Amino acid sequence: MDIPKNILNQSNKWIQEPFDAETQNLVKELITSSPKELEDAFYKNLEFGTGGMRGIMGVGTNRINKYTLGKNTQGLSQYLKQSFPNEQIKVAIAYDCRHNSKTLAKVVADVFSSNGIKVYLFEDLRPTPELSFAVRYLNCHSGIVLTASHNPPEYNGYKVYWQDGGQLVPPQDKEIIQVIDRLDYSDILFESNPDLIEYIGAEIDEAFAKSAIENAVFQLPENARKNLKIVYTSLHGTSIKAVPNVLEKAGYTDVHIVKEQAEPNGDFPTVKSPNPEEPEALKMAIDLANELNADIVIGTDPDSDRLGVAVRDNEGKMILLNGNQAMVVMTAFLLEQWKREGKLQGKKHFIGSTIVSTPMILALAEAYEVDCKVGLTGFKWIAKFIKDFPEQKFIGGGEESFGYMVGDAVRDKDAVASTLLICEIAAIAKASGSSVYKELQNLYVDFGYYKEHLISLTKKGKDGAEEIANMMTEFRNNPLKEIAGERVVFIEDYQSSLATNLFSNETEPLYLPKSNVLIYYLEDGSKICARPSGTEPKIKFYFSSNTPIESVEEIKDADDYLTDKIQRIINDMNLN
């Protein structure tokens, strides 16, 4: 195929200085033998999404490499110096188990130090939530973690945190991008200043573990923790550095680690995907749980910010909770514990969620008379709520994609404290003759049965990105008026910041930041959300529907009814 002129112009810049000989040779090889791959590597610059910047490792402007990360770090260095004049700027850097993470973390540290910035660099891989914690613990101005979360092995990424411990949010992300875009690769200062790089580890580990216990441990019956049998897998990731230690310190002694998955490994050799959202990822752990008759299974993703939880149902079968179910159980438990301890003060406290997560969280907030703040997808928005509303105390919050945050010591989803919290719930339930599953069922009786479903359509490369854009344009410009026999009542368009009532044609403003998200609300209370992923080549469709029930015995029929309803919506939207 012929190489487009703009792609050739971009790639030709990479076969000369300031790029090193290895990079130049790799680009030359792509030009001569892989024009399609060359186009994908150079057709755009990697951008910040909901979870930072993620991409395939390799040469090119659309790839993760020392130059794209170096340029970002150079721009961030200049922005930090503009934002904090006359201060000794400090940053913390962590990295996960992925290929090249350690090397790239050192590149990032070198660039910061070359710009006169003090760097605290973790001596070895650490969980992402520990980096968020370290930013505040060390009074840093910013933080970086090198990770691609649960993406395939060929990916890596670069998450940027601000001094509050939360990820970048507007307008800072856009302002930093503007600084980066003004730079040339020749502007990157790669030469390290070793005097400004300090390696950190044990002290932060201890403080992080202590914080998790303070936030997620409650008054339990005697021996409740010792009597809970836990199977845990790190899925070859970083949580092995933190979770066993935290469980032991909290008093959990019957913990069984899936040994085949305990060694950090960027190839993730025992799973198709190191994503606890996928049932297959927890198969080895569930098999071990069945062998040992364990009460609960917990698996965390490579950078330890998401967790998957499996518990036994009423027939003793191990089942995987979805992210919405885990979030509801953990939030309800926190609210009840805070209430029992006399700490709840109405609207002075709040819980957090996202626009694509279960509306059941709103029902919980109403019942406990606390505020519920709902933001865009991504925990950076929950962290922003904590920063923007200092007069309110954050209790906990989550999202459908298996992330949860307990308290405000960490300002990102945190599988370490969340693992401890779900074990507390399981331990107290078992001690009282109940179970996590039964507690979830009781919540459905109290608040209604909620059913959620997610469809992710993968569209890779430049063509895939265009296809996703076209799908969103079609849904936006030619909105559906009726879906599966139910009229569409409201459409929320977060790109135009308008909510439209299709019955009256009246509009009202949406006050969340602009985002490429559309939400349809149907007459029967069902909800459909469409959004391109900010970190993967996917477009995602989220479905939610609910129905009241009066007893646990009605759950099976309610589930069948809502499953059929959601399937009819999917069929009508041609998303099979």
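Second entry:
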Amino acid sequence: MLIAAGVVLLLLIAAAVLVLSRGLAALSAASAQTDRLVLAEGLLAGAPMQPMLVRPDHRMEMPPRVADLFGLVQPPTAFDGLSAAGGGLDPRDAEHLLADVIAVQRSGKPFVRQVRPRGAARTLTLRGARAPAVAGSADVVIWVHDASEAQAEAERLAVEQTQVREAFNALTGLIEAAPLPMWYRGPDLRVSMVNTAYVQAVEGADAADVVARGVELIEGSGQGGPLAGATAARETGRPEVRVLPATIGGARRSMQLYDVPLPGGGVAGFAIDVEELEEARAREQRFANAQRAMLDRLSAGVAQFGSDRALLFCNQPFRRMFAMRGEWLADRPEFDRVLERMREANRLPEVRDFPGWKAERRDWFTRTDAATEETWHLPGGVHIRVLAQLLPDGGLLLIFEDRTEEVQLASARDTLLRVRTATFDNLFEALGVFAADGRLQLWNHRFRALWDFEEDFLNSHPRVDAVADKIAPKLRTPNRATLVSELVRSATADRQQRNGRVALADGRHFAFAAVPLPDGNALFTMLDISDSRRAEQALRDRAAALEAANQVKTAFVANMSYELRTPLTSISGFAEMLQAGYAGALPDQAEQYVTAILDSVSRLGMLIDEVLDLTQGERDMPLRREVMELADVARTAAAGMEGAAADRGIDFAVTIDASAGQLSADPRRIREAVEHLLRHAINAAAPGGRVLLHVDGDDEHARIIVSDDGEGIDEQAARHAFDRFAQPTTTRGVRALDLGLPLAKQFVEAHGGSISLVSEVGMGTLVKAELPR
């Protein structure tokens, strides 16, 4: 029994152990299940989508979180609770959702709907489907997801997509409308997209045709080909720029190519026609070269510095002025080094603080004003004008003008002005200078003292009208003062010089003149001519007296000549009667005496006629003008003198040209003038000598020339050869009063002609008379 009891006890213990073991296992499984349930509930609570269950009878099981998403205070238990007052869905949205639920219950087809709770800004996405089998086949589970952020992101992306599409379309239109060729190369560097300008440049049919044929804008291959830039841009990751020639529209153009690498491995490119730019650069270079050549010819020194303050250019005068060697300038020295070199050559002003002075000049590169000007006073009295001009590119242009000579000339000019002022004030004449506007600018002491002007009046630079009003009371005739204004205006405006005389009220006389000056002003001068006026009047009175005496003398000579003719006629008559034998036959000696008496009577009669002619003068001489042949008159006069020439053994030659022509003159007076000239020549010629009469002329004048080879006369006698009643001349030891030349001159000038005499001692004499036609 004990054994049986023990076995039973053992069995009971074993059963208990087994039950305990199973219980512990079940407890462990329940705990694990509880943990999984807690984890599931936690995951479900944190899930972005929350479920709610709709029963076949439209009852609902909704977690509080879902009720909060719908804007409800308490989770509803029936479907109608979704559209409760103060929250939930709009009744229409609730109806549509209920219809979706019924459709799922009937057909099992899931649905998706977006709703917006009343009074909320959120958007809810509802996804409905049949619930799992464990929940019942007619139940519908609706997963609720707050899609507000996703919806906003979707709307934002839609807006961005619209903007990107619009920008892409605009960029595409811009590229297509661009006037310069543009293209895109794919990763294989083949052209895959071109614009219209590219198609026109390569003369293609359209973009597709150009891309299909792979037409390149630039010909060639290798380093100078179209792919070189694209390859370099893709390898370096930086844009490549090149200038290559291209044939566009049948013309060779210079194109600037840009290859830009893109992130996708492709390369975009565009080309700019820089042919005009290259030509402009060439023109600019030619202009710069011409400008530099011109600057080399200037007398002023010119130096140009770049924006880096390095010397870019300097002309030859600059090099000579500052003793700059070409090899040193070839290294493009900086501005500071150039100044230091100038200082070494003693071509800078002497300053105490040279670094500070140099820093001030360095500021020329950064000054806001366009130009700076200053003067450098160098050792040795050299003056240099320096002009610093800031250039648009940040550089600096310096111009150095040597004004030493100008300063010296200015100093000399100041000295001359002081000398002129001193001379001006000490002149005996009264001087005043009037400007072009008629104002008095300068005057001397004599001018002020003459008119007794006040200093304040003169210092106000009065106009000429005011000056004329001031001097009017001091003139003998006050209205003559307006003449001063007229003269000054004539000299300034008309640039004409005028003069005259004026009498002052105190009896003095002044000669005045207005002279135009080169600077547009007028010089008004007045000279006291009172003494010369009195002397002139005395001379005039004396001349009148002499003229009256001359007239009395002329009248006396004329009367005496007429009185002499009466006894001379009687002597001539009785001598002719004796020669004719009225008193009987005369012996040979008496015949000779009578012949001598008749010759003397003839000569005396001729002298009386000549004296009478001289007393008449060329103005009072009566002329009987007629058209005459000068050749005939000259031959008649020569024929009358042939006997006198033959008596003395003179070789008498006559040459008359056909150009002698005709004259409108008095034939008798012209014949007498020729006879007087021939008689003078025959008397002056030595026995056996030669006398020449030559007559010719031109369209306006006739010319009579008489010459002899006699002893001639000196210069003093030649000057008085045509004077009336001159000192008698001596010819071959015989003293005689020769009236032939004065009479010939009087006859010629009475016809408006002229007569001249040329003589040299020992060579003879030549007389030339010219008569107008």
